[in-house]
Every structure is written in C-alpha cells, then in structure tokens.
Amino acid sequence: MVTELVIKDLHVSVEGKEILRGVNLTIRQGEVHALMGPNGSGKSTLAYTIAGHPHYVVTSGDILLNGESILKLAADERARAGIFLAFQYPTAIPGVSMANFLRQAVSAVRGYTERAKRAVAEGGSAKPIGSELMPMREFRKELTQKMEKLHIDPSFARRYLNDGFSGGEKKRAEILQMAMLEPKIAVLDETDSGLDIDALRVVAEGVNSLLGPNLGVLLITHYQRLLNYIKPHFVHVFYNGQIVMSGGPELALELEEKGYGWVREEFGEPVMAQEIA
Question: What is the pLDDT along the chain (277 residues), one digit of tens a residue?
Fold first, then answer.
C-alpha cells in the first residue's frame, strides 16, 4: 500500500497567534513536493507541526497518515510511524558521536528499544546494557553501506554530532539520518539554507540517491536553485499561512523570475514601492 500523508484544513497557533490558516496538502510515497514562499509565511511552522513539535498548537483541521490522525502522537511516535524532519538549523551535540546517535535513533524507530522495555515490563529479567539497541554488527554493516551510497567518508561517523560541522556537513548528516531511518514521508526544511553551490550539489545528490517509490518528500525552500538539482513533481506557493497556488516545476521558474511581489499583490497586502524598485 502506498503511504499517504493528508493535511486537511490545518490551523495552527503559536503563543495564541494563528500562523497556519487552513492548509490542505496530500503527499504520497514516490512524490516530491516543493513548498516555496517568502520568509515568515509559515513554512517551517508547517514542518514542525507535521513532526509533532509541542510548541505548535493545532486549533482545527487534521493530519492523517494512511487515513489515521497523528495529532495525538508524540514526535517519537510519528517518527516510528514513518515521518522524518530534516532541520533547517541542526543542533550540535558535543560528546555524542554520529554513530552512537544513529544507532539510538534507528533502534527507537525500528522498535528495538520498545520491545526491550516491554519484555522487562512483562516480567522478564533485566537485559545487558545495549541489548535494547540494534545489534552492533548489523548496524555497522548498514551504516557503512549507507555512507558509501551517499559518498560520505567513514570518519564522519566518529565525529560528534554537528559539533564543528560546516553548513554542508550538517545537512549531509541530516541526509544520512534520513537514509538510516528509512522514513515513508520526509520533510526537508530549507535544506539549501547556508550552502554554497558546491555543498548544495553534494547534498542534492544525496537526496536524489534516496528518492524512489518508498519515499515521499516535502521540500521547503525559498529558491529555485535547489530545484535545479532535486526535481519536484509538484510546486506549491505558500503565503500568509496557506497554500495559495499549486502547479508543476514551471511555477518555481516563474517565482525565480518574478520574485514574491506578485504573490503579495494577488493574495495579501499591497507591495511597497521599495519592493517594486
């Protein structure tokens, strides 16, 4: 069965202020959707809401995964259900290696950790430390394979998570996480942010290597340049907390040529003189 994420008339508030004002969007495995819009339009709010960040309050509407609402699921439960979020600004965690972080994350998402906890709760004896994790030999084999596929140096796994990483390295670390967690639906929040053209190309190649019938992607970006490397099936214009227009890849080219001024003119406040100049 093809996994389907359906966002229905979604309204979201932050600290009492409404940010999302009725978002409707359907993403299926095998599809790449680009969401484009100016700063402050609510794109990242949508990303965090899908992932289950508790700071974002859904006031009405729903998010369905294969017909079932996920609004009551915590972020970790959504991850186990197949939702992944790549952050715009990944956090550094000194002292935790990439390999250890990934083993913990993969073990949680694939159910190793939960099964170990359940066994103890049901009266089983305490297991040795590490028994709640994916077996080390299996993990190392899979990590090596995924790093080779993404052309990532093996030494990357021994470095502390995002600590001292360049912008490009942080984004590659996010793509490696996506490769290991094997989500059904991935939300990439401004993956091109802060990248020069060479780093952008490398990160895009990593994303493209993971695309296929088992992965649906929501690609959030300001600029057409990322879409030169990752080809979307659908492009949506996001403004003032809503999707105001949808189309094919040609819509992104129109935005690149005209900017967002015409979007503001048609769907929001008047464009100021300095924006036209």
Answer: 899 999 999 999 999 999 999 999 999 999 999 999 988 899 999 999 999 999 999 999 999 999 999 999 999 999 999 999 999 889 999 999 999 999 999 999 998 877 767 766 666 555 555 568 999 999 999 999 999 999 999 999 999 999 999 999 999 999 999 999 999 999 999 988 888 888 899 999 999 999 999 999 999 998 888 999 999 999 999 999 999 999 999 999 999 888 888 888 888 754 333 333 2
Q: Which domains are present in the chain?
A: 4-91+168-276 (3.40.50.300), 93-161 (no CATH)
- CA R_g for the chain: 20
Whole-angstrom distance, CA of residue 172 vs CA of residue 17: 34
Phi, psi of 3 (to 5 degrees): -70, 140
Neighbours of 187 (CB within 10 A): 26
Q: CA–CA distance from 111 to each of 28, 66, 133, 184 (Å)?
A: 24, 20, 9, 16
User: In sequence order, what are the residues at sequence separation of 6 or more whose Cβ sits closer than 8 angstroms to the Cβ of residue 124?
Assistant: none
Which of 187, 167, 192 has its CA nearest to residue 177? 187
pTM, to two decimals:
0.89
> Residue 193's closest CA among 170, 209, 175, 173?
170
